[in-house]
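Morning - iron/sulfur cluster inputs below, output right after.
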Amino acid sequence: MLLVPQCIDLLKGLLEHGRLTLKQMFDRVNSAVREGKSFVVNTLNRKLVTLDSVQETLIKLVTARYVERCPAPEPVLAPPPPKDNASTQKRGAKTQQIEEPKTREQEVLEAAVPVEAIRFSVITNTEPDVDGEKKEIKSSTVTAREKRKYDALESDEFGAAETVVYRANFEEFIRRLRHKACVDSVRARLDDGAATVLSAMLDATRNAETEVKTKKSGPSAASFGGGLLLTFFWFCLVGLLVHPLLASPSLGVLGSVKARYVSLSMSSIYEEVIKNEAGRNMTLEHLRASLAELSNPPVVKGSDDSYSIDFEKIIELAHTDEVESVVLKRYGRDAYRIFRLLSKEGRLMETEKIADATFVGKKDAPKVLYKLWKDDYLHMEKLVVAAARQMQFLLWKVKKETLWKHVLDEMFHAALNLRIRQATEVDKEKELLLLPAEKRTGALHDRNNRLRNVKILIQSSLVKLDDSIMLFYDF
Amino acid sequence: MSLKRKQPDKKSPADSLSDHEHILYNLIRGKQDIGIWAGDMKREINLPNNIFNKSLKSLQAKNLIKEVVNIQNKGRKHYMAAEFEPSKEISGGAWYVDGKLDVDFINIVRAQCVRHIVRLKVATLEGISDALKRSGVFREDLTKQQIEEILRALVLDGDIVELKSNGSGVFANVPVGKVCYKSKGGSVGEPRIGAFVSIPCGVCPQIGLCTPDGIISPKTCEYYTKWFDF
Ligand code: SF4
C-alpha cells in the first residue's frame, strides 16, 4: 500500500502527457517532489525517489494492466492478399459470412498493438551483468516464443529502455469502471450481499474477460472535453488504486473462458467471496440466496452449478434506472408509472389502456403522455379506425435505442451547462480573485467562500455526471 | 335494434308513456349500458326542443332513465335506461365513482395489499386475495382481477417486486415458476437518484430550449442561482 501514492503520481504524469518513457517518468516524479506537488511528499518527507522505486511502481501498474507499452509507431503490415477469385472461393462461403473484411486502418491498428506479454511488460534499467546484458524484461507471463518475438522487436522498433514509451491503458480503466458501475447498480437494486457476490465473481473472472465491450473499445468519451475526462479519470484512479487489487493482480481464471460470459461454480464463487472483507462471514446458504436474488431479473445466469454474469443485462437495468429517475423527478409520479409500464411492455399501447393499468385519471393520462412525447421521451403513433364513426386512437411506446441517445445528449448538454456556469461564476468574481488572499476579508471573504463552494459543487457534479455519461457511452 | 328488444314489464310505468316518451325511451334503452348523449338523441329523433325536454324530464321522473357521468366527456348530459349499469367505457371502470378515479379507495386497497405482502414475505395473487377476504376490511370482496390490477400498479411504482418462485428458501411454499410478489424493503417507492437528476439541468423542463447565449441560458439560469443558495 505504500506504493499507492507513487502509482498515482506516475499515472497523473501519463494522463497529463499522454506517453512517457521510464526516464521521463523518473524525472517528472522527482521534479514534482522538489516542487512539493507530489503525492509521495508526505510519506517520504520530500526525499527524492530512486529509479528503482519508479521502476517498481511501473511494474505494479503494468502488471495490474493500468499502464501499457505504446503500440509500435510504424507497424509492419503484410501486403494485402491478391484479389483473385479462385482463392476467395477456396476460403469458403462460411468464413465470408461470419467475418466482415477488415479495413486497412483496422489492420494497421491491430498490427501496432504488441502481443499481450510485450504490451504488459517493463524494460528495466539494470547495472550491466557480467556478460554485458543491460536490459531486462519483466513480465509475469512471457513465454519463450514471446521472448523471441520481443527480442526481434527490441532490435528494431523499441530500441533501448529509454526509448520504450508507456501510456495509461484506458481499456483497463473502462473495464474496471464498468465492473464498479455493475456492482454499484446491483447494490442499489438489491442489497450489499448481492453486490459482494457479484464483486467476487468479477474478481474471479477479471483476467478472463478480454473485451471492454463488444462493439466499443478505447476512451471514446475523450471526444468530449479532454479536461473533463482527465478530471474524471483522475478521481477514478484515486478510487481504484486505493482498492487493494494492486496487491493481488493475478487471480486464477476459473471455469471456461469466453470473451464476456465466464462460468463459475458455486464453490469457486464461495472461495472468492470469503476472500473479501465484506464476504468473510457469508455462509453458503446466504450465497445461495444472493445468487437467487441476482437471477431475478437475470443479471447472473445459473444452471447446473454454473453461474455467469450477464453484463448487458446489468448495464441495461442501470440505463433504465437512470432514465426512470429523470422521468420521476422531471415529470412526476404518474409519468414515472406510465413510463415504467411502457418500458416494461416494450410495445405500442393505447392511451386508455395505459390510464387503466397505471391508475392515472383518464383525463390526465393524455396530458402526461403528451408531455413525455413532446420532450422526446416517448414515441407516438396515430391509429384511425373507420367503423360506423371514424375513431382515432393514440398509441405510445418507449423506444429505448433513440431515447438512450437522447438522454445521453441531454447529459452532454448538462455537462456543458455546468462548465459554462462555472466560467460565468468565476468571471463575475474576477476582481475579487485578483486581490491577495489576506485582503479578502468581511463580505469579500464570504464571496470568496461562496465561489469556492460553487466550484466544489460543480466539479463534483461533473465527476458524477461523467459516471452516468460513461454508463451510456462506453459501457 | 329497439324493435327486437323485449317490451318492458306490463305493470311498469312504461305503459303510461306518451308517444314521444315512448320513442325517446326506446332509443335510450336500445343503447343499453353505453347510454346516449342528449345531443345525439335530438339528432336521431328530431323532436321539437320543448317536447324533447319535457319527455326527457318525465322519463326521469318515472325512474325509467337516469343521468350518468360519461368519463369521456363529463360536461355532456348522458342518459341510460335505469336497469343498466354504465359500461367501463362510460364509467371509467371499477375504480371510478361518478366519473372520477376513486383515489381514496384505491389507496386503501394498495395499503392493504402491501401490508399482507410484507406480512407473508412472499405472496401469490391467490394468497393476497384470501388474506384480504379474511381480513374483512372491504364490505364487498374484490375480484382477483381488481387485486391484480392494484398489484401491477404497485410493481410499477416500485413498492413491490414481481418474481417467479424458484421453489426454495422463501419460495418453499410456492410452486416453481409461479408469479409472486415481494415487498421491496427499505427503499419503498424511491428509485435510486441518478447523477443526472441531482443537478438542475437533469430535472429542467427547459433543457430543450436552453442554449449558451439564448434567452434561456446557463449563464443566467435561475435554477442554478437557487442551487447555489448555500
Ligand atoms: S442551465 Fe438552467 S435552464 Fe438550462 S437546462 Fe440547465 S437548469 Fe435548465
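Note: DSSP finds eight helices and eight strands in chain B.

O.
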